[in-house]
Give the backbone structure.
Amino acid sequence: MVLAGLLLSWTAPAASAHVPTTDGTSVIRQDGASVHYTLELDYDTLTKAAGFGTLPRGTKDAEHAAFLEAHRAPLVSYLSDRLTVALDGSPCSAVLGGTGITKRQRFLYARLLLTYRCPESESGEFTVRYQVFSEADAIGAEHTNMVDYELGGSGGSDVFDIGHRELRAGRSGAAHAGRDAPRADGPDLSWASTGRFVSLGLEHILSGADHVLFLVLLLLGAQGWRSVVRLATGFTVAHSVTLALAALGWLDVPTEIVEPLIALSIVYVAVENIIRGESRHRLLVVFGFGLLHGLGFAGALDFTGDFSGRLLVSLLGFNLGIELGQLAIVLAVFPLILLARRRSWSVLAHVGAAAAVGVIGLVWFVERLLPPGGAA
C-alpha cells in the first residue's frame, strides 16, 4: 500500500510520464578550413529562447519556415556566444547560411545551417562549445543534443547535455606535443563518449515513469526469481530489437501510436495481475509489449549518420544504460515484494498497488490521445 501511494504521488504530476526534455541533433563536417554545422532544435523552444515568440497552434509549415527565416538576426545573436567552434584555440567566424524546418514523429524542429570559417593551422585540434538551451535560458526542461562529427581527421558520435558542453576533436600535432588532454580519436574520449550514452540510457529509463511502472507490475506478478529472470530477459530482448531498428532509422512508428499503446500495456498487465497473476502466456505478452517499449526508448536517440562501428558502440552504450537501470529496479523492488508476501495483508497490498498503477496507465492513455503540446 505504501509502495502504491509512493508511485501514485511520484507519477501523478507527470502527464507525459517523462521528465520534461528537449532534444536536438548536430551534424558537424570539416571541409578544409571550413566547418559545416547542421543544427536541429525543437522549434518552439528555440523561438522562445531566442526571444521572438511563437506562432499559434495550427500554423502551417510554410508559415513556420517563413517566420524562422524572417528572424535570422535574433537567431544569429542567440547562437553567437552559445555555439562556438575554435581551431587550436583561435575562434572560427560563424555565418548562418540557411534556415528551415523538419518534422520528426509529430514534433516540429528548426534546421539551421551554419558555416564556421577557421584560420589555417598545422595542428588541427577543434573545440566545439555548446551552450544552447543551457540553464541560463530557463527553458524549464533538460536538453540533450546528439552529435555526429568528422573533424581534424577523426570522427565519432557524442552527446551534449547539462554535464557535457565541450567536444574536442582532431590531431594535436607538434604544437600540442606532451599534452594529456583527451582527443576524439584517442581511447580516452571514446570511452568517455560511450559512458555518456550509458548515462543517457540509465537516465532515460529511470526518468520514464511508464517504463518503470510496467517493470514494477511485472515484478508484482512474478512468482519468484526464476520467473523474474525469464520475464526480464524476454523484455530485454524485445526492446533491444526495436530500439536498434528505430534508432538506426530502419523502423519508423509514429509516437502518437507508440505512446498510447505503452500506456495500455500498463493497464493490461495491471488488470492481469489483479485477475490471475502470472499467466502461462505472460512471457509472450511481455515480449510483445517489450517491442513497444523499445520504440519508446528510441525516442531519446536520433542518429543522423549512416550505420558504422562508432554508431553501433553508441547504441550499445545506450542500451547498456537501460539494462543497468532495469537491473537496479529489479534489485530494489523485488526483495520488498517477496518480503511483503509473508504478511497477512499481502493480497490486499497486491491488488491495491496493481489497481493504482493501472489507473495511472489509463490516465496516461487518455492524455496521450489528446493533441500534443509542450517540448519535444
Remarks:
- The beta strands are 21-31, 34-42, 83-87, 90-91, 93-104, 107-117, 125-130, 142-151, 154-160, 166-170.
- Residues 8-16, 173-189 have pLDDT under 50 and may be disordered.
- Residues 68 and 99 are 7 Å apart (CA to CA).
